[in-house]
């Protein structure tokens, strides 16, 4: 394919292969590098494998017909995830700079891409660490017996339980009141919750100590933060499979429902899940691979990282759903036992005469003899399926559903501690990638005066992020976090990724890119990579982006508020965003990507200016 | 005589039956769930257990109202069911046809609830007095919330780690700077020496020029 946009003076901006060979000998030690290949791979895997693998994928799998969801997921991985991943790792390794430097060298007009990645990484890092702060809060509280989310506190005069807790549940109360102290709507901001500020500060300190010298310290930390979650998942797997009701959860998760494949929403969700799960377009992967030795097999790395990420998602969903099945089973038994107690008390039958096994027999007998009395009891209809459907994703899964399950497991404190440490490690290794996506471009642009040591600079980044993230510790913080999550962490990334692949294939030149890869790995990329890079992936990205925009535009901008004074409490109060909040939402989506056209325009204007000046000052001797 | 005592007995039991009835205004319903509480070690509910109950309740009344000698006969039980549940009322020892007020009975039971429970190896949940909710035990709240302790430990470790890392990097930088100056000096000398040896065939290398180089390298 000869389609390529004219890109003059590309060779001036990038190092040629010969220069790179010399670079390796001369300047070894100037640019930090990975101690060994394992560190690099673990960092990339850690960045890709995050909280989403644990609390988003199982939810999607279950909602979209279990085993059948794996098909669109695999297709999205093969045609969208792996090509983009390989591309990012390859250009980082070839051009040896962070995101801003890479796109600037490719073409000055695409410099805005790097800035966009930088802004997105920074903004996502803000709210992602708030989630880590919440996880820390729960972790700190897991060292008590009984666990604080297992009982309702007493009200003021000790006559009963707090009303809000009684109406909802202890787990909900602990999350919404004692942790978030959430306000009834986004407009009432409340005040800074000091306990959340403390947890946020400790989260940032923990991040700082690992991030203090860039990849030198990250490389040591990831040995623990990346391997520990797998250990915990295995422990949970073994424990979960021995719980009663685990098989119900697993069957529910994996039973394929082929009908869902006809729903286009499934394909869209699979594509977006793969895309966000692999942490593409953040610039972090480019930063990580820029510290590689030059002759490194990036193709194999991409395949490893992509496949490990998907494997982790599937592996994590097994214990999660086994435990959710256990919880559903417990709730189902509680429901039936409640019915049994009601019948026993009303009809004065001997204690424990009615059991779960002979319940139906007794019920029919009693209904036949005294149907009016039975009806007056208003017995609950207990359906296992309803309880199994009660799963959630995101913070709802971790802090409400799972914590409820943990209470019912013997030895709850141990499981709670293990679970929250696992979540924290998963999130921490993703934070490294986010922050590297901010640090490396700034370092490469030489924007920092050299007298500031790197430790101070990373400290400044952490301090700035902490200060801005204090909005999430307000009473309305959770609502703001949801906004950031939906508007920053979604559409801008799709736009950036689309422009990335267009830049590499059509502005940098796919032929030059193939040569680079051949020089780095010794093998020219095969037909699969060629086809996906040139047509399939950009096309898929475009379709996904358009579908995403259409679907999001159709949805009403509403949010679920927790309002104890709501008529239907504990159901969520569905409110509309006020005008100023909607404006902020739009700003958040637009701000990261506005740099792409702005920088292109700026460069174009200065190019025009130079061109006009050259025309004016043409050397008379050169006619 | 015999007829009189028989008549009195019948009369008193009839009167007792009248005083105690389900939904009596001054009575309470009691519900025991022995098998739920004790499982295999559950005892059978019989007349003797009922006697113990009445005795315990008499004790509770004595405990509450000092001076009045409540006897087992003052506790009247009726409407027993296989559940095990029954109603009871308490008659005043001075006047057996007069019932003790509901509130007094409630106070007495609340005060001695623990003793009544342990007499039967049951708990607040398995020995229910319908209408008398158990006093909720205030959860033990230590002076320092435990989460602050864990937070302090973690932050102490992290803070110490940060200080150590910063100190280590300062020391390392200093060492590198000193090392670099020493290295440069050594490099200059060896360079001059090697060129001296290598250029033996071309003539004698003038050391003074190498010194000049160092000055002009500014």
From TrEMBL, chain B:
Top-rank lineage group of the source organism: Eukaryota
Stretch forming the signal peptide: 1-16
Residue span, Collectrin-like domain: 24-218
Transmembrane segments: 147-171
Membrane topology category: Single-pass type I membrane protein
Pfam families given in the database record: Collectrin
Protein name: Collectrin, amino acid transport regulator
